[in-house]
Batch of 2 targets.
Target 1
Amino acid sequence: FTIVPTHAYAKPASVVRDLVVLLDTSGSMHGAPLDAARRVAMALVDGLDEKDSIELIEFSNQPRRMWK
């Protein structure tokens, strides 16, 4: 017989996340590596909640922010 505290079943409090995605688009990332990086970035974005924020920085020769 096991006794489990009721708080063990409570929904965990949501944590607001600030996600920064740095995406290398240089020549060395051409093809499959870039496709894989894009899939990972999209999976991270799909996991965000409406309270979360995201910053996307793409770089090859110089960094470029998605939003100013």
Note: The radius of gyration is 18 Å.
Target 2
Amino acid sequence: MTGRLITLEGGEGAGKSTAMAFLAGRIAARGVELLQVREPGGTEAGEAIRRVVLNPGHAGLCAETELLLMFAARAQLVREVIGPALARGAVVLSDRFTDASFAYQGGGRGIDAGRIAELERWACGIRPDLTLLLDLPVDQGLARARGRGPTDRIEAERTEFFERVRAAYRQRTAQEPARWRVIDASRPLDEVLVALGTALDAHFEARP
């Protein structure tokens, strides 16, 4: 039996934490084994890398280093956690996955998408079955994120950076419409959750 990988993507302040909790409850209600992970992180090594990547004191981290650190954490997560879970038939729900690198290090930092795709194939070797994108205007998302308190190294980037990130996400949804579901995260929370539930249910109905 093979499991499935469901990923949640979105810019800063999109509401991923609330969406993750909702999706986890919806999936668990189906009586399947559920594993939740986050990126970067999810393993001891991955959490250590997360602290490096997000630390505001590492402002001089170059784009290539950031990308390689993200894939180092991701490779460990796939081999230590995600791969074994999928092999035993579990559903893995991940807060970000490889698409985040295409958006942040590709769109945001300007690294060639082909180089990122090479790392995706070599370091990970798996792709999501379903990806849900929480999409909203950048200024609205940043207002939410920065209203929560001190920002991390990536949250402190300029608005133009996040506009490129959003554009890269939207480009990927257009390239693979069968895998992606775009959710308007600027709507009231109850409407966002309904849209997420509808997309998730449709996925399970299409592939029981």
Note: The first helix runs from residue 16 to 28.
